[in-house]
Every structure is written in C-alpha cells, then in structure tokens.
Amino acid sequence: MDTNACPCGSGLPFEKCCEPIISGKVSASTAEALMRARYTAYVKHEIDFIASSCYRKDGESDIDMEETRRWSEESQWLGLKILGVKQGGPADEEGLVEFTATYARNGLKDEYRETAGFKKFDGKWLYVEGQLAATTIVRATPKVGRNDPCPCGSGKKYKHCCGK
Question: What is the predicted pLDDT for the residue at 63?
Fold first, then answer.
C-alpha cells in the first residue's frame, strides 16, 4: 500500500490531492473534491476543516465537535467510494455526491452511505446537508456461539462464562 496515497482513493499523493484543500491553500474546485477532502479530514482527524467546510447560518452551531472528533479518532477508516455525482462542477452552483465511507469502530465494520448536498457561497463549495441511506453493520470478527469456547480463555463454554 502506498503510504503517500491520499486516503480519498483518488490515486494521487495526499500532498497533491486533499492536503491543499484541508490546509486552506486552495479551495475545492468541485463538490466531489470537497467530499473527498472531508472524508480525508476524518481519516487525518482534521475536525476544524470538517466544521469549516459546512454551511451554517449566522450564530448556528449544529456540529458536535467532540462527537465528531471521537468518531474520527476511534474509527479505522477503510475507504471512500463515490457512487455518483450530479452537477457540482466548477461552473455549477449546486451539486450532489452520493458516497459510501467504510470504517470499523468498536469491533464492528460499518458502511456510511449518504447523498450529500453542496452549494457554492461566494465562489466556495460548502457541505449543506446530507440524506443518509440505510446502512448494514457487519461484525469485524466472527460471532461467538453459545457453545463455543469462551474467548476470555477460561476453558468454559461461552454460555457458562461471559455469555451469561
């Protein structure tokens, strides 16, 4: 695995892909570029960028920074897939990006699927809102059966030990 590759899956080096957007050196040229940078910000724990790339009305603060930080830091980010893009190009004012972000947290593998809405404000793309799709949680490790040996190492069956 290329350790210099951008986590967004573009195939480009991080320094030439999402890093300039996250650092503020350049603005995202498309809604998809902002979506990729937002995913990468979760991987890199750049919570301030996640917050600053959201549209908020004056005085509005609907982002739970601590929970966002916790989700970012406690998750193992496994990949981003862009499923579809509608508008959101350099000449557009609005765009939709449908994506899945796969991650593992607390021993469970999850796939977060959303259709994200983006708009340009003063020439800058911002995340406006998302429509969450149904997700399926898959165990990262096999489920322990009632009659299996207990994973704690006691030598007892799971149902007679930790599975009570």
Answer: 81
